[in-house]
Write a structure and sequence with these properties.
This is Histidine--tRNA ligase. This protein is an alpha+beta fold. It is 39% helix and 20% strand.
Length: 442
């Protein structure tokens, strides 16, 4: 280990534009999920290991190779969450939230997987998560996809992502299709990759996900689910597609899009991009009607999705740089003390403000100009004695004086306009009258 302290591999530090992109994704998600009536939910960042082993499946790569599992001092096996859904399902069962069903819940935060770091993939990463718990109608599938599409649109990703859609049918359909796939791939077992031969024994649907060239040739000739679809499952998928059409949401059918675990049913979907190299999926989800039962709870139909915040942040345009509206430039000890009260008054009134603390007047004004602020509020001994403040418009390069009491009570743009009309002696009486009449002060 190097003597220089470093971040753990697969983690990242963010500041500046990178942090602003991250925040932009979260802020947009929060705004959009409120439009759809999704309430925030918080669950622990670690759970008993069994929660993830039972929900993700003992044979999956996540459980067998990627989870951060440890034994605590009490001898309990705990695991840092590799995703949100299992923890939310556990909370639904252990807290008796069934009485509130259907529930529309949204969360975001860190998740952890021990995998090879690469562009858009980290060992500590962050996800957005949306779930509808206790709703067994195709309309819920449409709504959860509409929420995802709306989010991506609000992030400015029109044209950068494509919605892939498929169905896994009901249990009857899935069982029949899986049997046909096993027969097909077993007949070509020797031609399969080593990974797919292992999947054939443990998780045969996952062979359809294979990136191996030889596997892809066999997948192309594999049985299609539509040939095994029950009438009920077909009607469900038709209802989802009609709902998406009605909502104006474009999609393409991808018959190879699957989820390997038995508790997944009906709709499965992913939003794919070709702007991130190999890491093409930015948001994915589906219906998982059997998960609650797998965790020991009651039958509860559910549908949801998760999205990688880092990947979305890489796709969006750089957000506008945050700037303050005003910078206070105090000159002298008395002014510096008075400026502390002044800046607090500004911020409490909703004005983003900063203060130039160090250096001479020239350096402080240079800092004010570099901040991107519209106004510098200059406060010295003369201004204090007269109960005034010098307001300098940093864009126009002009300045005027205004009553100190007006700061934080009248919008700076309005105050500036009034003061500019009287650069030598502002209309104090007029501004004083405005202080009592301005609607924001009533």
């Amino acid at each position: 280990m190097s003597s220089k302290i470093q971040a753990v591999r697969g983690t990242q530090d963010m500041v500046g534009e990178e942090a602003a992109r991250f925040d932009q994704v979260i802020e947009t998600f929060t705004r959009v999920r409120k439009l759809y009536g999704f309430r925030p939910v918080q669950v622990p960042v670690f759970e008993f290991t069994g929660v993830f082993a039972r929900s993700l499946g003992e044979t999956t790569d996540v459980v067998s190779k990627e989870m951060y599992t440890f034994e605590d001092r009490g001898g309990e096996s705990l695991t840092l969450r590799p995703e949100f859904t299992a923890g939310i399902a556990r909370a639904y069962i252990s807290n008796g939230w069934q009485q509130h069903a259907p529930m529309k819940l949204a969360a975001w935060g860190p998740a952890f997987r021990y995998e090879r770091p690469q562009k858009g993939r980290f060992r500590q990463f962050h996800q957005l998560d949306a779930e509808i718990l206790g709703s067994g109608e195709p309309a819920a599938d449409v709504e959860i996809i509409a929420l995802a599409q709306h989010l991506l649109d609000e992030l400015g990703l029109q044209g950068k992502t494509v919605l892939n859609l498929n169905t896994l049918g009901d249990p009857e359909t899935r069982a029949a299709w899986q049997a046909a796939l096993i027969a097909h791939f077993s007949a070509h077992r020797d031609a399969l990759s080593a990974e797919s031969r292992e999947r054939l024994e443990k998780n045969p649907l996952r062979i359809l996900d294979s990136k191996d060239a030889a596997d892809k040739a066999l997948v192309a000739d594999a049985p299609r689910i539509d040939a095994y679809m029950s009438a009920e499952a077909g009607a469900w998928f038709d209802a989802v597609r009609k709902g998406l059409d009605a909502a104006g949401i474009a999609y393409q059918r991808n018959e190879a899009l699957v989820r390997g675990l038995d508790y997944y049913r009906h709709t499965t979907f992913e939003f794919i991009t070709d702007h991130l190299g190999a890491q093409g999926t930015v948001l994915g989800g589906g219906r998982y009607d059997g998960l609650m039962e797998a965790l020991g709870g009651p039958h509860t139909p559910c549908v949801g999705w998760a999205a990688g915040i880092e990947r979305l942040a890489m796709l969006i345009e750089a957000p506008a740089v945050d700037t303050v509206e005003a910078v206070i430039v105090p000159v002298g000890e008395a002014a510096e003390t008075a400026a502390l009260a002044l800046i607090e008054r500004l911020r409490r009134s909703g004005v983003a403000a900063d203060m130039a603390f160090k250096g001479n007047m020239k350096k402080r004004m240079a800092k004010a100009s570099a901040s991107g602020a519209m106004y510098a509020l200059i406060l010295g001994d003369d201004e204090l004695s007269e109960g005034k403040v010098t307001v300098r418009n940093l864009i126009e390069g002009k300045q005027a004086t205004a009553p100190l009491d007006a700061i934080g009570q009248i919008p700076l743009s309005l105050l500036w306009g009034l003061s500019l009309g009287h650069p030598k002696e502002p209309g104090t009486s007029y501004i004083g009258q405005l202080l009592t009449e301005y609607p924001g002060n009533k």
